[in-house]
Amino acid sequence: MPFSHAFVPRKLRPGRILPQMENTPVSIRLSNEVVSYFRATGKGWQTRVDEVLEEWMAARHSV
Questions:
Q1: Would residue 55 count as lying in a domain?
Q2: Alpha carbons 52 and 34: distance in angstroms, whole number
Q3: 45 lies in a domain?
Q4: What sign does the dihedral 57-58-59-63 (CA atoms) show?
Q5: Per residue in 31-40, pLDDT tens?
Q6: What residue spans of the chain are helical by DSSP H?
Q7: Which of 1, 10, 30, 59 could form a cystine bridge with 34, CB 3.0-4.6 A?
């Protein structure tokens, strides 16, 4: 086998395209009561916490 055939380029398999991150990862301390409540709502509980905070901001901004 010729040397040039030893390094045949492999087909590239398309990987998963990662979405651009719109959120900023943070560490925040919340009361056990708040965390328990939102976790009990099931998958997506962190998104719901974010939605509640956005609603709070909107209510404060309109004042």
A1: yes
A2: 12
A3: yes
A4: positive
A5: 999 999 999 9
A6: 32-39, 45-61
A7: 30
